[in-house]
Amino acid sequence: MLVGDSDVRDGKPSTRPPGSSDRSHDGELYGGPVGRALRHLHRALIENYVVVLRRNTTTETLRRLLSKASKHSDDAKVHRYVGTVAKAFTLQLSPYSLEVLRRWPEVDYIEEEHMAYGTQSGQIPWHLDRIDQRSRTPNYFYQPIATGAGVDVYIVDTGINYYHEEFENRAIYAGYDAVDAYRNLSRSDQRRGLDCDGHGTHVASLCGGKTYGSAKGATLLSLRALDCAGSAPYSVVLDALDYVARTAPQRGRNTIVSMSLGGGYFQSINDAVQILYSLDIPVIVAAGNDWSDACSQSPASSPYAITVGGTRSGDGLYVNTNYGSCVTILSPGQSVLGADYTCNNCSKYLSGTSMATPIVSRVAAMLLQREPSLTPAALKAKLVATATVGAIDFSGLPVQYRNVTPNKLLYTPGSCGGVVNALGKGYISSPNSPDPYPGNISCLWTITGVSTEPVQLNVTFVSLEAPSDTLKVCSQPSCSGSNLLATLSGNLGNINLLYIAPDNRSSLWVSLQINSTNTGNRTGFQASFITDSGQPVAPLHLVGGSTPSSGRVEVQYSGVWGTVCDDYWDINDATVVCRQLGYNGTARPFTNAVFGQGTGPIWMDDVLCAGSESSLDQCPFNGWGISNCLHSDDAGVVCGDTVQPVAPLRLVGGPTPSSGRVEVQYHGVWGTVCDDYWDINDATVVCRQLGFNGTARSFGSAQFGQGTGIIWMDNVACVGSESSLDRCPFNGWGIHDCSHSEDAGVVCQDLVQPVAPLRLVGGSTPSSGRVEVQYSGVWGTVCDDYWDINDATVVCRQLGYNGTARPFTNAVFGQGTGPIWMDDVLCAGSESSLDQCPFNGWGISNCLHSDDAGVVCGDTMEPVAPLRLVGGPTPSSGRVEVQYHGLWGTVCDDYWDINDATVVCRQLGFNGTARSFGSAQFGQGTGIIWMDNVACVGSESSLDRCPFNGWGIHDCSHSEDAGVVCQDLVQPVAPLRLVGGSTPSSGRVEVQYYGVWGTVCHDSWNINDANVVCRQLGYNGTVRASTNAEFGQGTGPIWMDNVACVGSESSLDRCPFNGWGIHNCLHSLDASVVCRVPLRLVGGPTPSSGRVEVQYNGEWGTVCDDDWDINDANVVCRQLGYNGTVRTSTNAEFGEGTGPIWMDNVTCTGTEPSLDQCPFNGWGIQNCVFGHDAGVVCRDSVQPIAPLRLVGGSTPSSGRVEVQYSGVWGTVCDDYWDINDATVVCRQLGYNGAFRASTNAEFGQGTGIIWMDNVTCASSESSLDQCPFNGWGISNCWHSEDAGVVCRDSVQPVAPLRLVGGSIPSSGRVEVQYSGVWGTVCDDYWDINDATVVCRQLGYNGTVRASTNAEFGQGTGTIWMDNVLCAGSESSLSQCPFNGWGIHDCLHSEDAGVVCRDLATLISMVKQNPPLRNTMMRQFMKLLMKKVSLFPPRSR
Length: 1436
Fold this sequence. Notes:
Blueprint: E1 2-4, E2 6-9, E3 12-13, E4 29-31, E5 37-39, E6 48-53, H1 59-70, E7 80-82, E8 88-92, H2 95-102, E9 107-112, H3 126-130, E10 151-157, E11 171-173, H4 178-183, H5 199-208, E12 219-224, E13 231-232, H6 234-251, E14 254-259, E15 261-264, H7 267-278, E16 283-286, E17 297-298, E18 306-312, E19 316-317, E20 329-332, E21 336-340, E22 346-352, H8 353-370, H9 376-386, E23 388-389, H10 399-402, E24 408-409, E25 418-421, E26 425-429, E27 441-448, E28 456-463, E29 470-474, E30 484-488, E31 491-500, E32 507-514, E33 524-530, E34 540-544, E35 550-557, E36 560-564, H11 571-580, E37 587-590, E38 602-604, E39 636-639, E40 649-653, E41 659-666, E42 669-673, H12 680-689, E43 696-699, E44 711-713, E45 745-748, E46 758-762, E47 768-775, E48 778-782, H13 789-798, E49 805-808, E50 820-822, E51 854-857, E52 867-871, E53 877-884, E54 887-891, H14 898-907, E55 914-917, E56 929-931, E57 963-966, E58 976-980, E59 986-993, E60 996-1000, H15 1007-1016, E61 1022-1026, E62 1038-1040, E63 1072-1075, E64 1079-1083, E65 1089-1096, ...
Parallel strand pairs: 5-9, 10-12, 10-14, 11-12, 14-16, 16-18, 18-20, 25-27, 36-38, 42-44, 48-50, 54-56, 60-62, 66-68, 72-74, 78-80
Antiparallel strand pairs: 1-13, 1-15, 2-3, 2-22, 4-5, 6-8, 6-9, 7-8, 15-17, 18-19, 21-22, 23-24, 26-33, 27-32, 28-31, 28-33, 29-30, 29-32, 34-35, 35-36, 35-39, 37-39, 40-41, 41-42, 41-45, 43-45, 46-47, 47-48, 47-51, 49-51, 52-53, 53-54, 53-57, 55-57, 58-59, 59-60, 59-63, 61-63, 64-65, 65-66, ...
Helix pairs in contact: 5-8, 6-7
């Protein structure tokens, strides 16, 4: 599937840049103070306006308004009046008169009248401003070098809104719509290239729109290849490209294909691009938005395409752009303003390489206009050669892609003249600047400002060929006589010449005359201009903040204080405010009146500082008092100030202390951070603040689980050098548009950072004292702010004490000296060291040594006491038993509650809810009662960390033994693997926890543990348990220690052990196992005989009979659980196998525990054929058969299959469940066959354990447990997948049938009655066999034909049967295999029917109708004569 390459957020295109409000922007209607609207096509202030009145305005009112309006016109007359399509008039207005007219109730809206030829000026869109200059600093000016006239640009996309005013009738139908063709739509339903998604219109406007593009002479041909959802199959795009290849050359014009789309790699698309390339048609495509290698997608991977990556404002990479060697060039792609298809003058912001692509296409169109002979290769080379090199920050790119991704930003040479309508400042330069200018050109710039302000021009650089080339500054466009202010020529280099328009004129003219043809290395000129230089700096102050350095920004103009609107308000604006107010630290912007709403005028809107201005009024903005905001949009700042404390951080939910969900504390409340714009820079700041000094990785989408409560931060945009996260720009505390599914996280590298050492000083014993920590080689103290039991617990654990911990404050162990290293320590209690806990940062404190913290630790040096659950029906429930000094004992239920149960379940690895039980609910234990009066708070890491009487101190009996039930629904089985063994069935045991593989310590490791491992891995037995890293030492964490399985657990993590990562081992003690390779007997008449098959690398194969003897057979029978061997079998007695022959020349001694332990050639090394497959006949063991029962069926012979194992009933999963399995079940239960197998819990969902999964019976087994399956309790299923059967039983009533809707009783729609309700049968697989069974059941003596597609009319109600597969011999339809009652994917238009042969009725009809009888006799005689003629006499 192919999709458009623009980014969307929450399913909708992004319609605003980061930090802006949700109101409209350029090209949309702006609401005025009383509901009127001013429409800005440009942000420059020009004089001509179109005033549009409401449609119901009467003629009399119109005359009155025309007269009234003339009084406000600067030239005292109305220019034009339009009254047919709209009641409107055009006139010149001053800013004051404009505001007056906006308040008239008859006015619908006012919009500026743009010029037919002019330049985007004033505050133009950033994507235009950036590509015509080498520097990232905006100059607020853009003049295209050409218009793209004579060039066709095929917009292969979702179509174009032809009527949008951006296109000025230059967007036309390409003559073909690939989506219409694909869907084979009628003419009335065809869209004929008209956009219904918006993506294509936006893209087209960035190429050839009058406001947002620059190729304003190019023809935009809408070739729709994506549907109204923005996607289509690749074949549709191929069809579109084929149309271009067939028709574009016939137009005889320069042609470009612009494709802002992409998907996976598809060679046919790349081939199509190559064909267009061969036809001299350049194809410009989007790199894609997956933050991955563009070479993995099409058409981005085509070497014949011009592939475009995206950038963002400030010269960083667009956050999602693809990268790599397949990228040709970079172009602006984030928060790009363009046309919106929903109305004919709407606009919106979109982000993506889709937006970057048409910007390159429009430059290509302009280059083709200037040089029509450019081939695709030459065009590509020219774009690359003129690009700005090294301007984009690649620090966020994966390291391996930084050198192969071209750091080349699209550049379009400077313009030759134009009209510059600007407020504030900007600059102009010669064409191609700073490269050499072209020869033989004549350019004239007109710089126009405010009527009351003289324009100032500062020429800063001149390098011209003298005397032929000149630069003139003039007060009139004639540039002669007294109007000529200066003439410059020659190589003057860097200069600083200031020219001011005389007599306070509001315009200056700059003329560049180039007469030379060879300009050499001369690079022209550069000049800046100011249009409001006489204005003094507007004073600022901050209001409403908690400190003098924070608050709502207010500015004074004309002696009146007012506020600033937060549109486009960002870190650059805040930096200028703080600098102007005298703060030289960091600055943070705030929006949405976070410091309260102001009153009075809103003086400034759309402020766009670069960050280097000396005062806020030097930044570009709409103009004093021109705003479309409310005071709920007032902007604010927080400037760097020592009063502001650092907001503490912590990581939650990660598998290690250095990873997890980022949480920040504000006003004493912890909350999360949204992942919008979350990247490596933000993660770096988090990790540095938390004390990690390695690399950092950023994660979004709640990678470490969803948090709860407040989302404190959103749109965090760190540069990476900040000292703490709250120093980075963000929306403001609690201002966000996120859910907890977007919580941000990090993984910090902690390899280099050692744990900060601790010591206790000043105590009466070694386990008590003032806490001191060493940082950078210097010992210092810890402040007691927030110091509590959790912090003390971490200190004591780090120092090796595992008993109780008590915190102390106020320097109770004496005041320390030196630095106070840590403050506001906020441990959760589970951290492995104190420096893993959240705190302010090293040395950041507001404390004295009189606040030094201390602890008293329990000095037991005791390891964690292992736990196990005994006597419960499942591994996650039972009586709690604890091991102390090697002896297992129970826990008394005094004060036993949910907190204690939570700790038990957590220690045992369960992560769901917990329930507590007393009074020996799971049976009375024996032996010692180790613990009493346990009083956990619930956060302890193990039960022995909770307060209790002391080991063996109690007043209880075993009738008070405590128990728990742990929830294990969420906790998946921890995966296992065997590593380092010579075969897949042997090796070092490794377990995966939270995505990280680690080893198991061999303490207490025995055959019971090995049995569980082998069973979990699918092996059918264990050879031995292995210790002391027999198969090599592992690396990484040691996840499990003191594992104490009883042997019946379904997985290793269900066995008692210390807890994840709690151990006292080295990798030299890694545990291992040797498992029995799975065997099975196939093809024998009984389960204890057959061809020997062995499973290796997941595939079953046979054993060759070379050297096969009784010793080998003894090993096989013993491994399979039989208690002896009858005989060996050779020469494929039980049939030839298929697949690999795994073993040959097996020479067992007879004592080996499994066949793979016997000597043989090696896996797959053999010289046999299948006629030599080995077999055995084993003496059947005394293994009891696992009982079965059927539950939930309407009769005793149908229902959900349940099996009893170890005294507990459980269900069977329906994976691979088929008629063979059902046959075995029915035979075991005494029925004489199976009608069908049932899946998807047809007979209701069971409860409890799912005992069997992946059952694959051959159908000849005597009981279900003789069939191959995963192993008891090993399953990946839910009870919604419980298997069932319907067995053959004489008691089972036949489901009645009837025929409905036929012209005679023996034909019609088949209907069947089930549970008293009539329903139909679907015609899937319906054939003559099914019809034969129906006719036989209904008593007819034959079948004419089967009928489909509701031939006899559509039924109503339930469709009872689907996929009926009769053999034709069944006595009733319900005896045939089918999906199950009511299970189908059909409509009544698929109802099945039959026509049965009814001889008795036919004879009766013939007897009663003589004409019919005569006709039939004549037909019979004709048939008889025909048959006679078919057999002529044979010659003797």
